[in-house]
Amino acid sequence: MLDIRRLQMLKTVAARGTITAAAQSLALSAGAVSQQLAALRHDVGVDLLRPDGRTVALTEAGRVLLEHADRILAAVQEAECAVAAVKGAVGSTATLAALPSTVARIVAPALTALGADQPQLAVTCLVTDQAQLRELTLGTVDVVLGQHYRHLPEATPKGLAVSPLLDDPLLVVTADDGAVGRSDERPVGLSELATHHLVVPPVTTDCGQAILHACQQAGFTPTPRYVTADIAAQLALARSGLATALVPRTAIDPATPGIRTAPIEDHPIQRLLFAATRHTETTNLTTAAVIAALRTAAWQDRATHLPLA
Question: pTM of the prediction?
Answer without folding.
Answer: 0.82
